[in-house]
## 1
Amino acid sequence: MHPMLKPALRRGWRDLSTVQFGVAPAHALTLGPMDTATSSFLTLLDGTRGLPMLRAEAQRMGLPDGHVDKLLGELSRAGLLDDSTGGGPAADSLRKRGTVMDRLRPDLASLSLLSPGPGEAIDKLAARRAMRVRVQGAGRVGAALASVLAGAGVGRVDVMDGGQVEPWDVAPCGLPIESIGERRDTTARRFVRQWAPDRPPRPSRSAPVAPSSPGAVTAVPGTREGEAGLSLVIIAPRDGLAAYAPDPATVEDLLASGTPHLYAGVIEGTGVVGPLVLPGATACAGCLFQQRTDRDPTWPRMLAQWRSGHARHVPACDLALSTAVAGLAAGHALAFLDGVSSACAGARWEASVPGFEWHARPVWPHPACPCGAGAQVKGDQVTVGQEPHDTMAG
């Protein structure tokens, strides 16, 4: 082990014996009281020294026997300590790819804030490389989302869409202007490869799925053609209605194969992220449809009209909002892939222009939905026909 203080957290002295790690309240904490010799010893925790050398340095500085191990234990329990040589074989392989690591260092630093154990952050980063994600849709949301996932180290990001790139498809964070007139799927895949820090690993039908999230059930993809090895599918259609009111029939294969999937899109100036569907465990598109129908019996009739109508105009898709949707969806997707419990599991986040205030709307499993998630609802936790109260986040 080569201990190092997590470089993502800035350090500052609140007084002569108390040091604060971190600026923002989400991850900041203080450590003390600390004597002068111990505070000087902290500067040696830069990942270049192993434990024997650190113990020897501490002895030369006059620190008592056992002090180093006690200090390192406290720092580790507080989530402040990392290991510059930690992680498994995949992490060691990633470290050897200097150019790739330089691209991913900001992501590694961010992961270290969420990974308390030394070496856990680079393990998660290396695990991303073996994962496969499919993005369905290459419009303003889908193309940007796919490029973010690839740039964050997800090894294989497939993009599916039809038709040609239209002038209104291009965006600063998505498809480039010079791609107008080209095939959407071909252009999006080329764009994704451009932003990937490394070549994707060879496709494997036994590629690992996302690790289990706390409190959630990890769904294991089946062996259907096109589904094997998928860690996650993100449905980001250019038609925002398909994200706001998704058709359950379009995801039957994903539900049958147990493939986790996430919705994201923009409709009429409203951005939508979620729900993240863990088949058999959380609410799906069918649950969403059943809930809305319980509240509004005319919903199926209205939805049928909206779906059957031919769009005559370019859909409203605010550039800033679509970029925000892509970023939020990518963040939730990466959290799920890294094994962190996602706030999109069983919820949908919405924001509208011009306020851009995100609201979380719960999506409960519905007892009448054949997905099976409703079987986990016990007692009177959810009353059919009653809309849960919204929670808000600024």
## 2
Amino acid sequence: MDAQNSKNSTNSPNNPYETVETDGNSRAVSVCMLKGGVGKSTVAVNLARQLASHDHNVLLIDLDPNGHASVGLGFNDHYHDTDESIGDVFFDDADPSSVVYDTNYEFDLLPSSENLEQVEREIVVGDVFQPSALLKREVVDPLLGDEYDYIVTDSPAYRSRLTDNALVATTNLVLPLAPGNEAMSGLERTIERQIAPLRKHMNVDVLALVPNMLSGRIDQQTQDRKLLERLNSHDSLQDRIPNFARITDWEAVDAGESKPTPGLRDRTSITKAYGERKPLLDYDPDCDQLECFDELAHIVEAGEVVRHG
């Protein structure tokens, strides 16, 4: 279904987005953060799956040399097969569709490869015109809007040519953060080292900040609470906080009058879905965290956080 003519939908009878139209634009999005262990691959895979569940044509590009998203979708053999990779598209004029595969979960995958680090070295040392624009020129521009309504990239957790390529090609970012002492410093590094330099040359939009892997109570001074407080008290970030992570009345929380469980929460189903090489929707369609991934899909469709209630 064409993105311009589609309407957001979900199986929930109480979907607050059921009357919200997409903005009609095909869109490429990077899930990125200059910090490991924040669940980027989980967010990327399940964001792609939820967008596909809304009747969109979706491509997931795994640019992480670790290949977590690819392996988590059952593409272990493709990851270890270095005969075909995105490097062929970058340097040998291969058609991008030649390295794209059907996941059997309603979206396609351009998988990572063991030789991605070598591909990255070739980008750096090779005689390449505009080395940070390879992904945009060779993959995203030819496919977005024609073959796919949405393209999602899973980026490396470190500054690299691959990460720069992802940001240049997409210009729309979803930034996961996990609780911990370095949560906000990872966000600050990403803004200072990646986003700010690119904004001198192009529009780069943070669509959503996603507190991920939460498990603690928030009526006590846990790491979960600290992360949520900092995000929700930062004026410049308010428009980027999804509804599932937004807290506006901490006094009610502390008084026991409100007991929310904000953010993407740790669930056994999420871990088991990875082990079964499936997106969460296909492993456990009743998991409560699917509502969060569904909102992320709506944010990508609308190009912004849509407030409700």
## 3
Amino acid sequence: MLRFLFVLLLSSFCYSQTSIANAEAFIANKEYVKAQNEMTDFLVSNPNDMKAIELLGEAYGYQKKWDEAIAQFQILKQKRPENADYHYKYGGALGMKALSISKLKALAIIGDVKYSFIKAAQLDPNHIEARWALVELYVSLPGIIGGSNDKALRYANELQNLSKVDGYLAKGYVYEYDDEPELAEKYYRLAIKVGGSVTCYEKLTKFYEGQHQPEKAIGNLEEAKDKHQRNAMHYQIGKVCADYNIQLNKGEKCIKAYLTNHSAQDGVPKEWAYYRLAQIYKHKDNKSEALNWINKAIAGLPEIQVFKDEKSAISEL
């Protein structure tokens, strides 16, 4: 009898581990419906499995099924009110819902979003994600409904105490939105100096583009390319050159280098590189080459409207 119970418990445990592992693998492979189905079936016989509820919530979230995700994360935070991650994920799902509905309806749930992130930060003094969420929330909200750059900077300071890189990036973000470009550039530069990750360089590049400073953006991208040796940087340099009609020879060289060394890990399909070359040749008044490259882009991704619009512009040269 004891042996039978042991085998039964072991089988149940193995089934549990297999289902959880399957769902995690499905999510990693972006097979979110399969993960949802796996956890929905599993929870019928294991309704209190916290990991399964969490994975189901994540599967719903990736599908932008915000109400369903909210319901799962609400179960988690009610069962484990001391768990910071559950409050953070609940607030995140609520926040994404707020972005998907009308501004009037969103006003009714913003308070719950803010409370959830604050609660997560209070429960875990080392919770970086919750503090980032609060920085972004306080920056994006109008002052009349609780937005505050001062509060955003307060959480940016907390981030800096946990991670200098995150703190500097957060301060750069706050000052960028507060229309203080010199301070924003200062902190983005500090993040590069301390961390130097691809993300740090990307933040500064986007800032320069937003400030309409393409020369600085290109210089920053070249620094990143030399440091990280990533082919994707070739594309980014070519993109800025094409978009701003500057340093066209450099842009052409970089895009062709990107195509020569292209792999799936680079992220941007070849067709977008063809489009950038078409832009560059259009700027150079080389209509035949521009048409050649834009036709290659359209052949590969015929549904992209911007490619068709570019071809119309080239045809009018």
